[in-house]
Amino acid sequence: MKLIRKWFLSGIAILLPVGLTAFVLVWIFNLLDGILRGIVSKIFGKEIPGLGLLILFIIIFIVGMLTSNFVGGKIAGWFEKLVGKIPLIKTVYNPIRKITSGLSSDKNESFKKVVLIEFPKAGTKSIGFITNSDFSICGTDKLSVFIPTTPNPTNGFLVLVEKDDVEILDITVNEGLNMVVSMGSAIEGDLKTKKKLIID
User: Fold this and answer.
1) What CA–CA distances, in Å, run from 104 to 85, 109, 110?
2) Does residue 34 form part of some domain?
3) 124 lies in which domain range?
4) DSSP states of 76-109 as a string?
């Protein structure tokens, strides 16, 4: 009986991550492919799986290419300001625009550093990711740090801390996210930290 239980648990340990990964990938594929699915169906008279996603990627690439030059950038900036002033819409559009602009900027520091801070109480360390390092409160330099929940890193807490209160973990962002998603089981060895914050 113990052997059967061991085999069963081993099978779950192998198949569950694979199954969940496949489920998430299929869900993302259907979500993105479904954005233009109706248009594709009208043009071709039937649904063609994957074509909507391909067209979406092409549109994104073309828009990025056109707005990367001076004229395109000016037009995009004008459009962003226009949409950003529309009542109700601006409450949703402006925060999303800040996030996407930050992620696409080479100069942005969002999610480029993994840190340890005392949270939720003194003496307890939590893994976080720096989302903003260029602001102050009452003349004191601060950092905004996103502390994700586990195993779902899309939820979490935003905390504002002084730069001296963070320890930089000598790991990549991917390694940090892996620790969060794995609920800590991916933590191995002696993690190195450096007290002084250095923004590259």
Assistant:
1) 22, 11, 10
2) no
3) 114-194
4) HHHHHHHHTTSTTHHHHHHHHHHHHHHHH-TT--
187 within 8 A of 161, measured Cβ to Cβ: no
| Contact of 169 with 176, CB cutoff 8 Å | yes
Residue 149 inside a domain? The answer is yes
Q: Return the H-helix or E-strand segment holding 69.
A: none
Q: How far is it, in rounded angstroms, from Cα 133 to Cα 127? A: 17
Domain annotation covers residue 36:
no
- Residue 129 is given by DSSP the state E
For residue 106, pLDDT over 70 is answered with no
In a domain, 165, yes or no: yes
Identify residue 107 by its one-letter amino acid code.
K
Domains identified in the chain, total number? 1
pLDDT in tens, 38-49: 888 888 888 888
Q: Is the pTM of this model over 0.70?
A: no
Q: Pinpoint the alpha helices (H) of the chain.
A: 2-33, 37-44, 51-66, 70-83, 89-104, 173-181
d(CA 56, CA 62): 10
Lookup result for tokens 């996603």 = 53
Check if the beta carbon of residue 119 is closer than 8 Å to that of residue 157.
yes
For residue 6, CA distances in Å to 2, 3, 18, 185, 188 come to 6, 5, 19, 20, 25
Per the CB < 8 A criterion, the answer to whether 114 and 170 are in contact is no
Instruction: Output the CA torsion sign for 165, 158, 126, 179.
Output: negative
